C-alpha cells in the first residue's frame, strides 16, 4: 500500500518508514548499497531528509554509514540473531502467560480469526503465510494487555523478520512442511483460552527454541543458546551483489 506524505509529520519521518519497511521486508538485501540520490527521487524528497532517516536507521542497527556518507544495509550476523532469539524466548513466553490471565472476549476472537489464516511456514512459503504467522503472534502478545511489553515485542518481531526470511531460504529446498511448528500455534491458542498461564508460557518457550530464527543462528555459525534449533540446513549463500536501483527485491524462494 502506498504511503502518502501527508500521513507523516516530516519528510524525514516519511523516508524513515519507507526505507525501514523495505529493509525489513527483504527488498533491500543485507549488505546492499543504498543509492541515496535515486532513492530520494523515488520517494519524492531531497537527499537531506533521507540522510536524517538513515541516521535513525543506523541507531537501530539496520543501516551502516561510513565516513564518506555512503550507506548500506547492515549484514545479518549470528550475534544479532542470538540476541534477538534470547530476548524473544523470554518476552514471548511472558506475553503468552499474561495473555492466559488477561484475555478478553475481543482478544480471543482476534486470536481465533488470525489462527484461521495460518499456513505452515515451509520452504517456498509466500508472503501470505509470513504475514499470517506474524498476525497470529501479534494477536497473542497483544492479549497480554501490557502496552510496554507489546511495544517491545512489536520492535523485536520487526527486527527478527530479516532472519525469519533467511530461515525460509534455508529450508526452501525441503519438501517437508514444518507441521509441528504449525500445530503448536493452535495448542498455544487453546492454552490461552483455557487460562493455563504456565502451560502457555512453557509451550511458547519451546516454540521459540524450534523457530526459524534458531535455525538461522546455527547457519550463521553459532548454536542457539537454549537448545538445538529446529533442523539442519546449509549455510546461507548471502548475495553480496549490489542492486542497480533502490527498489531491487530479493524475496525468499
Task: Describe this structure as you would to a colleague.
The protein has 253 residues and is mostly helical. The protein folds into two domains: 64 residues, Winged helix-like DNA-binding domain superfamily/Winged helix DNA-binding domain (Arc Repressor Mutant, subunit A), CATH 1.10.10; 142 residues, Up-down Bundle (Four Helix Bundle (Hemerythrin (Met), subunit A)). 59% of the residues lie in helices and 2% in strands. It has a two-stranded antiparallel ribbon with strand order 1-2. The longest helix is centred in the middle third of the chain and has 25 residues. It is globular.
What's the layout of helices and strands?
Blueprint lengths: L10 H14 L11 H8 L3 H13 L3 E3 L5 E3 L4 H25 L2 H12 L10 H16 L4 H24 L8 H16 L2 H13 L2 H8 L34
Antiparallel strand pairs: 1-2
Beta-strand level of the residues, as a percent range?
A: under 5%
The largest sheet, given as strand count, sense and whether it forms a barrel, is: 2 strands, antiparallel
Average pLDDT over all residues: 84
CATH architecture of the largest domain: Up-down Bundle
Which fold name fills CATH's third level, the topology of the largest domain? Answer: Four Helix Bundle (Hemerythrin (Met), subunit A)
In spatial order, strands of the major sheet run 1-2
Q: Compute the number of helices.
A: 10
The beta-strand count equals: 2
- Morphology: globular
Roughly how many Å apart are the termini?
Answer: 22 Å
Q: Tell me the radius of gyration.
A: 19 Å
Query: Secondary-structure element sequence?
Result: HHHEEHHHHHHH
Name of the level-1 CATH class of the largest domain: Mainly Alpha
Which segments are poorly predicted (pLDDT under 50) over 5 or more consecutive residues? 1-6, 228-245, 247-253
